[in-house]
């Protein structure tokens, strides 16, 4: 019988992360079980989809307390305690099941210190042709010249990619705003000044985006240009198509626009370079006050 060769020492970069007492092959994870296997290897099983508790296991941090709660170091899952495991529960959010929030050691504060700025969202709303994209780009350029990192989320640009699967029906418009709000939240968390430029006609959906961030991190700007002014500009020719019945559900023509009731800044005119510069000064002042 051939002698078994001695174990090879861990020398490669990839081996340094392997536990010394871990077997060479991971054991199979039985369905419906969650516990500590041989040599301290964890076996992971998803919690019931009905569970809404989100707990971070690796760092030992508890996020929320939901229907499934830790009792005496054991986690209640499927109605019974699981030996050897605590603070590890997956959750259900919307249609996503068995998901777990994972925290990273580098957070918003660290990113903001690196960029020397505070992340926030400037949400510009108004009718088509009111000057939203013009103001967004001008604000981005002005802040960039002052040494701040910005990013513009333009409604039409996003429909070329992220939201290309959405129409202009009411339910799709709601999903369009929801997605942009979530992306803007991520950019603000990254430490960027995110400038979102969208018609976003419904007050409730803008409010939902506002509620995603702290009050000091969301600046709503309303370009209250009258319909007749926007229609006379008609930079994309959309009002003409809507009046001719070739576009249905066009905001301001056959779909309502709900003005903000609690925006941080609004104006009825943005037609000249002077007005634009005045707005930039006001916006920069408000932004500096809110994020300082």
Automatic annotation (TrEMBL):
Keywords: ATP-binding, Kinase, Nucleotide-binding, Transferase. GO terms for molecular function: adenylylsulfate kinase activity; ATP binding. InterPro entries: APS, APS_kinase_dom, P-loop_NTPase. Residues 1-31 are annotated as: Disordered. Pathway: Sulfur metabolism; hydrogen sulfide biosynthesis; sulfite from sulfate: step 2/3. Its EC number is 2.7.1.25. It catalyses: adenosine 5'-phosphosulfate + ATP = 3'-phosphoadenylyl sulfate + ADP + H(+). It holds the Pfam family APS_kinase. It comes from the Eukaryota. The keyword Nucleotide-binding applies. Transmembrane segments: none annotated. Gene3D superfamilies: P-loop containing nucleotide triphosphate hydrolases. Residues 118-265 form the APS kinase domain. PANTHER family: ADENYLYL-SULFATE KINASE (PTHR11055:SF60), BIFUNCTIONAL 3'-PHOSPHOADENOSINE 5'-PHOSPHOSULFATE SYNTHASE (PTHR11055). NCBIfam families: apsK, PRK03846.1. Belongs to the APS kinase family. Catalyzes the synthesis of activated sulfate. This is Adenylyl-sulfate kinase. It comes from Urochloa decumbens. The lineage of its organism: Eukaryota, Viridiplantae, Streptophyta, Embryophyta, Tracheophyta.
């Amino acid at each position: 019988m051939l002698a078994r060769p001695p174990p090879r020492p861990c020398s490669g970069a990839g081996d340094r992360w392997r536990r010394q007492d871990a077997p060479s092959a991971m054991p199979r994870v039985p369905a419906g079980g969650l516990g500590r296997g041989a040599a301290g290897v964890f076996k992971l099983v998803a919690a019931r989809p009905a569970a809404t508790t989100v707990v971070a296991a690796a760092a030992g941090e508890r996020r929320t307390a939901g229907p499934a709660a830790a009792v005496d170091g054991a986690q209640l899952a499927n109605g019974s305690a699981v030996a050897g495991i605590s603070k590890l529960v997956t959750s259900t959010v919307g249609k996503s099941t068995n998901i777990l929030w994972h925290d990273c050691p580098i957070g918003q504060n660290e990113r903001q210190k690196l960029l020397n700025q505070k992340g926030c969202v400037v949400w510009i709303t108004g009718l088509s042709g009111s000057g939203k994209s013009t103001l967004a780009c001008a604000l981005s350029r002005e802040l960039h010249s002052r040494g701040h990192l910005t990013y513009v989320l333009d409604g039409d640009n996003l429909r070329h990619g992220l939201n290309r699967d959405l129409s202009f029906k009411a339910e799709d418009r709601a999903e369009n705003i929801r997605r942009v709000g979530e992306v803007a939240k991520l950019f603000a968390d990254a430490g960027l000044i995110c400038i979102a430029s969208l018609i976003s006609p419904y007050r409730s959906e803008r409010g939902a985006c506002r509620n995603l961030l702290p009050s000091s991190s969301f600046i709503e700007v309303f370009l209250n240009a009258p319909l007749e002014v926007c229609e006379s500009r008609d930079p994309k020719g959309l009002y003409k198509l809507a009046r001719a019945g070739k576009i249905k559900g066009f905001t301001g023509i056959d779909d309502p626009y709900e003005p903000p009731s609690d925006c941080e800044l609004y104006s009825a005119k943005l037609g000249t370079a002077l007005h634009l510069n005045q707005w930039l000064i006001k916006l920069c002042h408000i932004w500096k006050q809110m994020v300082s």
